[in-house]
Amino acid sequence: MRRIAVVFLLSCSTLVACAQFGALFGAKPQPQAETPEQAASRERAAAAQRQQDEQRQQAAAEAEKREQALLAELDAARGEVSAGTGDRQAAAIAFTDKVRALEGSQAAASGKVDLAVLSREAAGYLDAAMQQAPSFELLRALDSLQGPEADAAFVAACPKLRSKIPADAVIGFTGDCLKRAGGDAARLKWPGVQKDLVAYRKHEEAELKRAREEEARRAQEEAARAKEEAAMAARGASYVAASVFAAGRCNFGNCAKDGWTVNTPDGDVRVRCNFGNCLKDGWVADFPGGKSARTTCSFGDCFKDGWRTELPDGQSASTRCSFNNCPKDGWSTDIPGLGTATTRCNFQDCLKDGWTTDLPQGGQVRCRCNFQDCLSNGASCD
Fold first, then answer.
1. Distance between CA atoms of 243 and 307, rounded to whole angstroms?
2. Model pTM?
3. Does residue 130 contact residue 155 with C-beta atoms inside 8 Å?
4. How far is CA 257 from CA 174, 330, 340, in A?
5. Domain that holds residue 315
6. What is the rounded distance in angstroms from the CA atom of residue 299 to the CA atom of residue 285?
């Protein structure tokens, strides 16, 4: 056996034979060479990745450049405030704007700058400027900062600006000062502050009362809307039961002779055929509340010419046979305020194979002819 294998190895003169020999003795298959299409696809993917990397690097470099410029502007604004030679208010506000511009920056995220420290510094500059020349511009700048130092500077500025506040803005101004004082009214000190606080509290109580009244009104409207929707749903279910032929469970297994019964949110709607023949003489639907709806067949033939249902509220639902042939092509019932119920005959033969009705509110009723003869044996619907 060994000699045969050696002879075969020596006679392996073709690539096919060698491949077969390698497969027999477990040799590893050689990797297939990359096709030109695969090489091109790989190169395109690599080029796209390189482009994305370059774009990310460029965006990071631009962001770093902007932050460096902002930090330089911050230092310049700090130097201008410290020098005290120019417009002190403008310099303090400019420094505050630069601090706010650093919020959410990479420099702040990395800890390169400490926003809490910078906010304290800005609050100090604004407070000093406010002591020199109080202004609403400085107060707005203080309002943009957070922290105890900014709060204290804001509260200290309130007495300096109270006399400049228009009468219609006093309540809002008092509320802002009280908020920055942490709700401590004792920290607010200006002539007539108690009067302002009383007016503010009355305003807040009135606003709270209005808010509660509005909430109660919305709740009442929602309850009324829910009640109306429930009533509409119940009324709709009753109207469907009254106007759609065989809309529910057949009485005694024969909808065409004995009518049908439909369970609704208000109770059962019971339908009875006139003279024992719904398809010729129509039917009457008795609602749970005692009212009724009456259906008459058009020209004495419901399954050819359709039917009309007079509803308790004075409206009417009309049904038309598709292609004037209800037993073959089905029918459609237009119900006021609800839409259209559409009935399809199974295998184009309602009287033999039954039908399926799609109700306007999303449900379905499926009817099957008993012993494949709806007229003689009735239908079972669910």
1. 9
2. 0.54
3. no
4. 80, 19, 25
5. 248-381
6. 20
pLDDT (tens digit per residue) in 319-339: 999 999 999 999 999 988 888
Note the pLDDT of residue 30.
66
Question: What is the rounded distance in angstroms from the CA atom of residue 65 to the CA atom of residue 62?
Answer: 5
Picking from 28-32, 113-117, 353-357, which range would have the lowest pLDDT averaged per residue? 28-32
At residue 56, the pLDDT reads 87
Distances (CA, A) of 92 to 119, 127, 344: 12, 9, 79
Give tens-digit pLDDT for 350-380: 889 988 989 887 888 888 888 888 767 766 7
Q: How many CA within 13 A on the CB side of residue 346?
A: 15
Domain count, the chain: 1
Q: Please check whether residue 316 lies inside any domain of the structure.
A: yes
SS3 310: strand
Token couple for 354: 């039954």
Query: Residue 116, Cβ neighbours under 10 Å: how many?
Result: 11
**Sign of torsion, CA 290 291 297 299?**
positive
Q: What is the pLDDT of residues 158-201, one digit of tens each?
A: 999 999 999 999 999 999 999 999 999 999 999 999 999 999 99
- Residue 9: pLDDT over 50: no
Is residue 130 in some structural domain? Answer: no
Q: Give the SS3 label for residue 56.
A: helix
| Token representation of residue 80 | 């201008």
C-beta of residue 282 within 8 angstroms of C-beta of residue 272? no
First to last CA, the chain: 79
Non-local (6+) Cβ contacts of 246 within 8 A are: 255, 256, 260, 355, 357, 365, 367, 379, 381
Q: How many C-beta neighbours within 10 Å does residue 223 have? A: 10
Nearest to 250 by CA among 261, 242, 241, 239: 261
